[in-house]
Specification:
Number of helices: 3
Radius of gyration: 41 Å
Strand order of the largest sheet: 1-2
Shape: elongated
Organism: Candidatus Rhodobacter oscarellae
InterPro entries: Cell_div_ZapA-like (IPR007838), Cell_div_ZapA-like_sf (IPR036192), Cell_div_ZapA_N (IPR042233)
Order of helices and strands: EEHHH
Structural class: mainly alpha
Distance between the termini: 114 Å
Largest sheet: 2 strands, antiparallel
Strand content: 5-15%
Protein name: Cell division protein ZapA
Keywords: Coiled coil
């Protein structure tokens, strides 16, 4: 069981841990050190026990907040999964096809338009001939 030196709030501590757990100990100590350093910067010199207690309480508060957020996110995920399951079971068929009637232009109107277009082209040709001569 190795002894690891960690620094919290500018103070050195020797802590024993299991083999292979050194990385986790250093990570936890870094979190505690961050809180302790902020406390020392705000309040000044604190007794060791008070500094460690207050730093631990600040971390516990952050952890409780993160737990609440995680719980709320998990509840939201469960609600959304239930909604998806309900929508899948209710809408077994694909999208509903809707026919929209479209007015059809009568043949007599299209025939009249074609005659008018032919007359306009003939008049345009006449005007071009007269302009050319």
């Amino acid at each position: 069981m190795p002894d690891v030196m960690i620094s919290i709030g500018g103070r050195e501590f020797s802590v024993a841990c299991q083999d292979g757990e050194e990385h986790f100990l250093h990570s936890a100590a870094a979190l505690l050190d961050k809180e302790a350093s902020a406390l020392t910067a705000q309040i000044g010199g604190l007794p060791e026990a008070r500094m460690l207690l207050m730093s631990g309480l600040l971390l516990a508060d952050k952890t409780a907040g993160a737990d609440d957020q995680l719980k709320a996110a998990n509840e939201r995920i469960e609600a959304l999964e239930a909604e998806v399951a309900q929508l899948k079971s209710a809408g077994g068929a694909g999208p509903e096809r809707i026919e929209v009637p479209v007015e059809v232009i009568p043949d007599s109107v299209t025939d009249t338009m074609a005659e008018l277009a032919a007359r306009a082209e003939a008049l345009a040709a006449e005007v071009e001939e007269k302009a050319a001569s």
